[in-house]
Amino acid sequence: MIEQNVSLAILKSVDTEMEFSRLALKRGSNASTKNFARQILADNRKIKEQLNLSTSSNGSMPADVAPDGSRSTDRARAATEKLELLAGPQFDRQYLAPMGTYVREDQQTGHSAYAMMDLPHLSQLGLQVWTLANDRSKQIAKLAGMRTSGIRQA
Asked: Residue 46: what pLDDT?
């Protein structure tokens, strides 16, 4: 059961980050923001594939899926609706806030999964999620700093 809860937390976060990042590619205007979004999409696809492989092989695929097939939470849907109303530099600034929140949650979830040494596949995935989250936290801080210092990239 704990394994299923951790797997579901990772999947929810991955799905939400991918949704936000797809919006960034459509609605953002900053090249660095779009590059960050592309990297998140690529990394999260890999995580999702690994998690789907490991959970399906041991029969513990999370079942907490919304009727529309997503794993989005109410908070994620509210953030998505807010982001969908924005475009250009406004979108770029607002995109970083929810991404920062999910990255902090990824750090915690990744650490929890890594601690599950009796489940090597989940522990290894947890280490990967935690490492990516730490890297993303630094990238978000750098992107946010570029915005506040007035540096713009086309």
From this structure: 95
